[in-house]
User: Fold these one by one.
Assistant:
Number 1:
Amino acid sequence: MTDPPTTRAPRGPVDDDDRYKWTALTNTTAAVFMSGLDGSIVLIALPAIFRGVHLDPLAPGNIAYLLWMIMGYRLVQAVLVVTVGRLGDMYGRVRIYNAGFAVFTFASVLLSFDPFDGGHGAMWLIGWRVVQAVGGSMLTANSAAILTDAFPDEQRGFALGINQVAALAGMFIGLVAGGLLAAWDWRAVFWVNVPVGVFFTLWAYRTLRETGKRGGGRIDWWGNITFAVGLSAVLVAVTFGLQPYGGHTMGWTNPLVDVLIVGGLVLLAAFVVIENRVAAPMIQLSLFRRRAFTFGNLAGLAISIGRGGMQFVLIIWLQGIWLPLHGYDYGDTPLWAGIFMLPLTAGFLAAGPVSGYLSDRLGSRGLATGGAVLFGASFLGLMVLPIDFSYWVFALLIALNGIASGMFASPNSSSIMGSVPAHLRGVASGMRATFQNSGTAVSIGVFFSLMIAGLAGSLPHTLTGGLQQQGVPAHIAGQVGNLPPVSSLFAAQLGVNPIEHLLQPTGALAHLTAAQRQTLTGREFFPSLIAGPFHSGLVVVFAFGATLAFLAAVASLLRGTGTAAKARGPHEAAPTPATSRHPQEK
């Protein structure tokens, strides 16, 4: 006799919640992957982009275009994520998130249809990259909050781990994808977003729903203005500081840089004062009373600075020195650099989900701290690596670095997001993303400044002497030798042989012997000359990265034995003592 139909449990809200959380994870993971991908895909595609819009990559005025193509996207994301996270808390996280997908996709379409050449073509790309970053900010600021709303405590670390690994994997997969797509057509690096963006935008509008509590309230205009202008001023100053100024190798002596930094810091100080006085602040400074939130974000900032700077330094090391010395043509080095960086991505992909899963069972502090220590140890290993290294040793070290980043990122995000009350998860997610994106943007300025300072002392003399030994007239050798070191670095990143590029217009090559021309324009001359000065800079850069990693480990230990507050989500019935300690946050 069969059981009557009435004995079967009806499908209820629990089943619906279970399906919804996986839908939210799939959609938000695709979103942060795309946002991370577009933060790096342009790096490898820059040679093809510069050729496509007919820009000389080594012309002094064009260095600014290159810097803004790299920095503009991160700058906008760093500035906007807190604001759009707050808007998500006020008007609905899914609503802001969905709008972000539409903006991101629309900007991707227009990026691929650049109608101009030269500087105007570059400005078109920079402008629409800014719009694309606005959409990306709306996605990244609200994705973690949507997941925190959708998943119960015991699965939250795993979900946030998957999300974080997708964002980081997007950064490094973009390095390979940029090379592959640019080999076909430079516009394809933007086309790739269009079908994915259209599909997931429509799917997000159809399936995602508001599961968190909206905070209501109004916009803190003065807080938003002082924060956005202040942080923008500091990050713009970093960009100008990397450009040559008045005969100096960098622009840190430029009065405009000083004004921007001082003015930006004053505005950020005013922002803190405003946030303590207004009734509906842009961010909740009281969140910093929570140890897990404060020290988790400080640790994340330190790791972000180290990771972002290392990415660019390794690309330049591979493209400018190691690959040419091993027989790769300059035009092929961007693609191969991305391929040889794959162990780093593999480390992310392997460690991120596992550490997120383990953090749900073992806690966040031990895993995040161990990841930060391993991250620093990998920097120490890279610091002692010879300039012409054995690839398998290099691959092992960057794989360990990737594993360390994955070990750190998932538990750290879970700890931060689990420490805040449910109605502030949007702004907390935005604050976490601001620390991360600001760290990446600042890291470029810090690491490049250290590297350029190391090159400036010996590169001009080394380059001038090497050219003269091959028969180049002294005055021409002096001109080329005094090329700003930042140009040499970006020449390496763009897959350009600067010696051939700079000597060709002078006519000096025509007066040299065939053997001299072959030496100067070959693969080994420039890498061999730059190797010594570059390695000196690498030691300083990697020592700084290791110091940041160990500071992150200390901050991670200080977060406490567990999350400071198990903030209640839709699956939980009552507030916890941690949230009741701060009634002003309710």
Number 2:
Amino acid sequence: MSILTNRLKVNFHIDAIERDFVFIRFKRDKKGKWWGAEELDRMIGEDYKAMSVGYAQYAYAMFDKKSNDTYALLQKLRTDPKFATVSAIEVKPQAVYTGNDECICEVTLARLLINSLGSSRSRFKHLHFSNLTGALLKVPPLKDKLYDAIGVAEITIDRDESQTNEFLLKVSVVSYRKKVSILKEYKGTAELKKILKRPEYVFHSGTGTLRRSLPSDGKETDPTKSYIQCAKQGKKLHTNFLEFGSIEKFEKSRAGILFQVFNSIQEYLSEYMSFDFSTLEIDDSIELKNTILKNPNQLHSKLDGQAIHIVDRVNDENAADLIITLKEYILPYITDEKLITVGKRDKENALNFRIIHDAEFYEKTGHKDEYLPSTDKIQRQHLTVESTTNVSKPIVKTIVKEQLIKRDISSRTLNLFDWAKLQLKGIWTFAAWDDDTDQVIFMEIKPNGNFQFYEIDGQDIFNWQKFEQYRKFMTDGSSGDKIETLEGLVISDTGDINQIFITDEISIPELSKIENILKEVETKLPENKQNGEELADIVEEFLQEPSASDLDVEKLKSFSSELRKIGSQTISKVDFKSLIAQYLGTKRKTEDKEIDVGSTSEATRFRDYLLDKYQIRLKLPQDNQSKEDLFDASLNIKYFGETEKEAYYFVGERREKVKFYFKDACHLRKIVAVDDSKLIFRQILPTMDVDFVRTGQSTVIPFPFKYIREYKNFGVAK
């Protein structure tokens, strides 16, 4: 069993590259960032018509050799007043850097080749790639309609420092907004001046994308028609990693864009570089199936006899309404409603839900802020009356879960996870960095699930001697700062130390198969299977099949009868699918709408019959085997690449939760055994098969790190 990742293994064909392209390197007289530099966008404008631009330490431009005389090009640049503070020289392409600074090689060379897809291909088909500010951008088709905000996908390729000529192909989506909207939203803020210094773009009807607005255009841009990269205040643009509800949604998702770029590279650049996605063999897989939050009654044993206390620190009508809502939503999780009490003060040995105002209220009125941290004696969870309208059953489930974690921390005992089932010997330690104190917090867990926290604070000599040895594995040797990508340490009872690093490498599902299936779903019905009579004949055929013998015959006959009424009239695949849903039971009609009640045997088997006998596909398959075939790279816990000192893993989605999209990609995490240590991480993979860290979802690092994060927020009484 293997998976693909976004790691590209690249081999450059230098002879072909040198035959067809010229590369110019730019160096500024003074240091300055090249992102958004006007010189780069001027390069791909009408004045120079470069195929692409890019930058690293220096900036680079790639030109078609047939259309350009290199000497004349350099002379033009040297006499252009716009490049008066920039020096330009020709550099030669090389696959690997050998010490010659007058070359372009490795990731910078790959970037320029990939960025060339923008200027040379954007006018074709519907891809709408463009090459601005040194990156390949996928701009959604704008035509003549200019949206107030558009999500622009930025495709970048970065070097993997540990491998030669292996790069990571990445897609991120950022928001570009009309200048007029930015001026209105950020008016009077210090941020506005910084935003307006960013590059400004206008719609280019020739390519259907954006182009840089330059002073040489000779007129000021219309703020109702120009765009600047800028997010809405307090909001982060999110685009799902993978969508498969339709081919259109697939192509707009980050994975779909990655797939399009990969195909474009193969189609247009294979003469200059050969490559493929990296393949990884899976060494271990754990199905995500353990839950304690799926149904309310799963928490009965955890909350049996537990006092719930609602603390009203507001005492108004809004607070009274919130108390009623809280009681209603908490009741399903407990067995005795008398356990819920209401008062003005916190209670020890109770889970306290404090109703307070938000921070803005206390700041404006000057009243004492009623927020109090949890302590070892009192567990607290806060709700503000200002957010009363947002309180829902899922939110209450989350805050109940958070209280149970705090209760575990107070008792120093794991009650939400059976630690003994791991069959670990001795004490295991988890270490995480506390950014607030610039120190390390350690959590020691005994075989029976009892645990203790320790902090290196410079005052406890014993603890300092005990744990300082681990600190060096969390800091950069030269600067003493925390290693940025390090998420924590795991230390076994025998003293083996494993580091956990987050990486930019992600797992890639079977995108080609998914695309092909979605295209099959959206193709028209076969020519001789497009009217009611012809489709009714198929239903009658199906009724004669042995596989239909135990189905609801009346349903199928009613369906056939409806198709006979349509007769020789042509029916679309969309309408045909809707009739199947209506007559074979996947949907039920109410007075005002249709509600989905899940697929039935009649609908499922009839769709299978259509696919097997007539190659008519009506939907992307949702059975467990199909999910594993298509989405294995996004499901469950996968562990792989194990050597003596290194291994990788990722945590995906639970199989039963897969519907029509994956919100996020699965990032690979790298495990490193330090010094003479052995790899021990494989033994604690089950610590991520829990649903109480991220409500209803699995955690991507062992759950003890969640306990450490919560402990950091406890009050001084800890």
Number 3:
Amino acid sequence: MNNNTPFTQSISLKDLGIENAKIHYQLSANELHDMTIASGQGIETSTGALAINTGEYTGRSPLDRFIVKDNITEDQVWWGKVNIPFEPKAFEALYKKVTSYLSDKEVFVRDSYVCADPNYRLNVRVVTETPWANLFCYNMFLRPEQKELENFTPDWTLLCVPSFLADAATDATRQSNFAILDFTRKIALIGGTGYTGEMKKGIFSALNFILPVNKNALPMHCSANVGDKEDTAIFFGLSGTGKTTLSADPKRKLIGDDEHGWTSENTVFNFEGGCYAKVINLSEENEPDIFRAIKKGAILENVIFKEGTNEVDFEDVSITPNTRVSYPIYHIDNIQPSSIGKNPKNIFFLTADSFGILPPISRLTPGQAAYHFISGYTAKVAGTEAGVTEPQPNFSACFGAPFMPLHPTRYAEMLSKKITEADVKVWLINTGWTGGAYGTGSRMKLKYTRAMITAALNGELDAVEYKDHAVFGLAIPQSCPDVPADILNPSKTWKDAVLYDQKAVELAQKFKANFAKFEEFANPEIMAGAPKA
């Protein structure tokens, strides 16, 4: 729905404890765009997109994300550094402060929903302090038709109030900013930060609890697309591994770029109605879909203009390297209109291994798939942080640990079951280094990675010869159309085969050290997927 038509219905927020507010309800994308500019909170770029600055916070703040510990969550959530408990009484007191703060002020309200499959739909009422935050939610959440709004009842409420600063001494927060989920009251409460990603990931985190616990559906931090034969492919991967790039395939329709559910009916559906992409070093040549989506209706965050113009300099990271754009999915041409795919047949785990050890493509057993899913591995390159002189492993369980309230093995066991029941092939794709580690080897060519994925999707790797990796036990195809054979076997790309073996064992030990905290919860099949070294 391209909602640029003004909506005239009015609502009250008294049930939320917000009194006498000036409410802007369900404004169109154009209205929110214009109000942001008129209020001096944003600038229109040369392509018609809106550019805004999120303030002090230009990314998520994981240490300030909390979940209320109550009867619903106490025995379900995996409490710890990722899921930090918050007392119900403290939440109630803070919530009253926030709603009192919003009373008598101007607020922007949007009724929306998440989960494209009607059987899993969750209605979300969004209350924001700024018009551009409301436009972000228009882009990122699904957009109901006007007739659906007449009897709209929210299942969850999201409040985002960047200018409200908590007092850590009295509000039980760590500092002035916070993002808190209350599953009893069904509220996501965000304050002290203007970073829009907190809203998106707050609702994602709620779904990562609701879907497996209440709906027997697997939530996934992944992109997905569908082919002409209605075969769905799923792409997991952390930042910088190619998840958005590789799922954007001109021969396949995009279901979504980041958040999906896999149902017991064996369908895959998008949670969202838009895309939220990094734009650092963006170019039309390398990322044509994203580049062309940056037009009227899109929101650019924390970007810098070329001197004397309103043209964005995508290479300028003087505010943050985490420059981003949000846009509604209909800004992309080749999309799956329903945002639902059937018949999942291939899963790709993407990793940018800057150690240069993992094969560019390998086929995984169900146990290996669960092990690598829980591990969620990629590697930072040397030089990205002060004092980092060699590659550093980065493990994020389920390829999205900061958003997973349950223990990672619960998601992994659901994934393994679905892989087996649906006869899905699982592949590990290394988009990182070959011929040595970062600084010695070179980045795997994108054209080769695309050729490998295409071959896997087309079934061209089903009948080729495979050999197991000596250390990781991964099945490596010995041939692949349009890819040199030597590239497929990483040890052959290194000048020093003995050094390769040594480094492979070292990386395997890092995998095992990371996995130690999951071992007591992992079943034998998952443990059998571990490296052999």
Number 4:
Amino acid sequence: MHSRRPAPRAVLLSALVLAAVPACSAGGGAVPAADAKPVNGGKLVYATDSEPDCWDPHTSAQDVTAFVQRPVFDSLVYQTPEGELKPWLAKSWKVGGNGTSYTFTLRDDVTFHDGSKLDAAAVKANLDHITDKKTQSQYAAGLLGPYSGATVKSPTEVEVRFSRPYAPFLQAASTTYLGIAAPASLASGADKLCAGNASVGSGPFKAGAYTRGQQRGYTRNAGYAWAPEGAGHTGPARLDSFTLRFITEDATRVGALTSGQVEAAGAVPPQQAGVVKRDSRLSLTTKAVPGAVDAFYLNTRGPLFSDVRVRRAFKLAIDLDAVVGSVFQGTGARAWSILSPTTPDSYDASLEKSWPHDPQQAAKLLDEAGWTGRNAEGYRTKGGKVLTVVAPVYGKASLFSQAVQGDLKKAGIKLDLPASTDAAEVSGRLDSGRYDVVETSWARADGDILSHFFLSTETSAGGGHNFARVADPQVDGWLKEAQAAPDGEKRAALYAKVQRWTLDQAAVVPAYVEQSTVAVNKKVHGLRQSISGWPEFYGAWVEAR
């Protein structure tokens, strides 16, 4: 999943955290027994595998930031676990100008945690904060696409404008990244917002005590009365409080669950799934995450992969069925498209089984491209140069990337995984295009995630995620036409064209579908998974002891 480091070009490092196990923590508590009735009160401790580098969702590009701040920040729109868009802070909205404007009518009964009231000026202040260059937004500003401004029409009415039709906005407005904070908190400054010391929203929980590297507490917002339809609960949250514990080591995290130190644990790896399944007190749930699957983005303008034959050979040389099966021990699913099958109204199922492992064709393509020599280690050479694919890693390489490295060696391709914890060094590589491959995944419940990766304007150096460095007018046209199309079927057809093009041109090699996996004590109920696979603590409750 995408992550962040505390530096201006942090979003680029998101691509280099190569996840060997499902990385997005989520929850899905056991179904209550027939005689089990929801109770109010109590506490819950949830162990997650990662901690935000920055707690400001307007700045951060991390999945984990959206997860840990969802209980604190409400949004204008709510997306149900089934993918439907419902009113939330906005009671209703009207689309005008053929999709170039959205006028929201706000609820008049919403109060932020600091006692201030939600109004149109507060919404405008949040959009201004997201688009302010000082915020250094690494994802939220991108979600606003061709945003051109907001106008307060009345205390309960705000108009959001775009320079061209932009249909993905409503779904974007449902994300934590575009969550609405109390305006006074936005003035706290980037340092406090990023450090998590100024998180003030209108959500069902208030941000509580925080100890860096250990845990964050949350307390119930007793006045909460504006849950959206489809939230599974109304009124204040059932829990008095809950705590997130940050436990990065897999065995330790699962051990905390089996020993009763925590009631639920996310990101359970395949190697620990057996431990959970053998414990009758626990249940294990898994959900495929929507958005961009874990994939290899090939630098189509680099010296090596500017040759489409070499790109196609790289794609065909990896035995993804075998690698995914081995690394995930039968619990993972290989990807056939850049989009996850759970991405609403976007996935092109016709791509399944369309590009099997073909080492013979890969070898033929490399021969045609002139990589006909072999060195003592078996790697292909050309003019005395070894066929080396450079895939920089921030931190350390994952088990999955190492398995792919071994598989490519059989084809004579050397996958170099230079690891570094120097953010500036890795960022410099990406900004300047000094890489061959970037591996990443990106959760979003909308096909417009393709725009973030393949629009020519979304360059790495410019703050975008076009790691394949695609600059094709046809692709730009499809993506912008999809953004302008209010009809879901038309958008799906255009997204299908992009998916097929990226595979045909081997600009990207989809690897595996990210799974959101959680183990939960059966005394915990209502800890359901959001559309993106994150836990929703609002309706959760714990059986009385």
